[in-house]
Amino acid sequence: MRALFAPATSPLWGLADVGGGLLARRMPALTVVVVPQAVAAAVLGVVVITTGGWSEAGPQLWFAVAAGVVGPVAMLCFYKALPLGPMGMVSPLGSPGVAVPVGVGLLLGERPGLPQFAGVGIALVGTVLLATG
Questions:
Q1: Domain encompassing residue 30
Q2: Which of 23, 43, 98, 132 is the most interior residue, by most CB within 10 Å?
Q3: Do 54 and 13 share a structural domain?
Q4: Do both 17 and 2 map to the same domain?
Q5: Same domain, 98 and 78
Q6: 53 and 98 belong to one structural domain
Q7: Could you tell me which residues come within 8 angstroms of residue 94 by beta carbon, excluding any fewer than 6 positions away?
């Protein structure tokens, strides 16, 4: 499943960025973040309740809670930034945030291969070029 979900992530995030960015130009960024998050929480609540998902909860649940708190704050900052500059520049400048999970993975002992490190390097160089160009 990893081979299916991982490549789908990038275009889906990209579509969400464009849609949210366009909406943030027409309405308050807080609305653009809160309404979809509330709908998602309701849908996920129904899914968890109907599937008995709470029985699977363990200590890792607190990581999900933290992500649920931090994620919308990051989205709000992102959607506030999009109307302030060209979408094609603001969006890539937000992408180095992936350094956090990469760094945590390295600290926890994960060892990506050479192609993965090359991809991280290319992304960082591209971000620096975009930010300084």
A1: 1-84
A2: 23
A3: yes
A4: yes
A5: no
A6: no
A7: 78, 81
Q: What is the 3-state secondary structure (H, E, C) of the chain?
A: CHHHHHHHHHHHHHHHHHHHHHHHHHCCHHHHHHHHHHHHHHHHHHHHHHHCHHHHCCCCHHHHHHHHHHHHHHHHHHHHHHHHCCHHHHHHHHHHHHHHHHHHHHHCCCCCCHHHHHHHHHHHHHHHHHHHC
| CB atoms inside a 10 Å sphere around CB 68 | 13
State the Cα–Cα distance between residues 63 and 43, nearest whole angstrom. Answer: 20
Q: Does 127 share its domain with 108?
A: yes
pLDDT tens string 41-71: 899 889 988 988 777 777 888 888 888 888 8
- Domain co-membership, 71 together with 39: yes
Amino acid at 120: V
Residues whose CB falls within 8 Å of the CB of residue 76, separated by 6 or more in sequence, listed in order: 29, 30, 33
- Taking the C-alpha atoms of residue 34 and residue 78, their distance in angstroms, rounded to an integer, is 13
Please state the domain count of the chain. Answer: 2
pLDDT tens digits along 89-99: 776 777 677 77
Say if residue 46 is in the same domain as residue 77: yes
